[in-house]
From TrEMBL:
It comes from Nezara viridula. InterPro entries: Anamorsin, Anamorsin_N_metazoan, CIAPIN1, SAM-dependent_MTases_sf. It comes from the Eukaryota. Residues 246-260 are annotated as: Fe-S binding site B. This is Anamorsin homolog.
Amino acid sequence: MGNLVNEFNLESGQNVLLVNSREADSSDIVKKVESINNFVHPGGVVKVENVGRLSLGDHKPSSFDVIISDVVAPRTIQHDSDLFEVYLTYLKPQGRFIIQEAVKSLDSLTSILKLNGFRNISESKNIVVDDDEKSKLSDVLKSETFHLIQIEGQKPNYDVGSSAKINLPVSDNVAAVWKLDDTVDDDIIDADDLLDEEDLKKPDPASLKVCGTTGKRKACKNCSCGLADELEKEASAVKETPKSSCGSCYLGDAFRCASCPYLGMPPFKPGEKIQLSGIQLKADV
């Protein structure tokens, strides 16, 4: 009993959760519960859970002062983040935990505890095991090299999901920057003073054209200044340059074919537009 007090530091009135592995012997569990009861009574309660059914229990959050995990041989529980999350939920603020575990690395368990939010994590203590338990632990870890250690820690002084108000210092000399009813007589620029008569004149539409202002007259895509329509009209007004089938009609009748529509007409310049009469366009019958 004296050794138990030194090991777990239990006090009268504390609520304790004892978590055991699936392989733990029931008679050893009963003995451990009786020993713990000697230190938490009167007023304290000891509850026992199998690690495989821990999440199925009806324990309320923040209901235990101490959680003692895997202290009954064989100590085969592998404490991971999911299990520590449950412990963090069940512990009261500033509640303690004591766990024993076979590990390959002394620092691995400490790192997991810190990542899960526990504080005041103690130095690990090596625990001597007999040959029978050592054989069972070797089968679980698939290794002959391991350490059975005990480590303790504490839940922070707040519940999971809790919040607290942060009192930030507030200065008395705060500028009323965002007040809508600010009556400070500031110099405000009159919007009418920003425009002169030249700015109010209606601009010439031609000066607003962007198309064709950088060299060759070409309308922009989706042109809205009118240049596209203007160029289209100019293109439709341009007629095709008359072309001669023989290429020598403009020289005169001496160089024209028998069926040339220009027969009887004087010579003309190459490319010159010649208006033919209706009679000349009719075929001979």
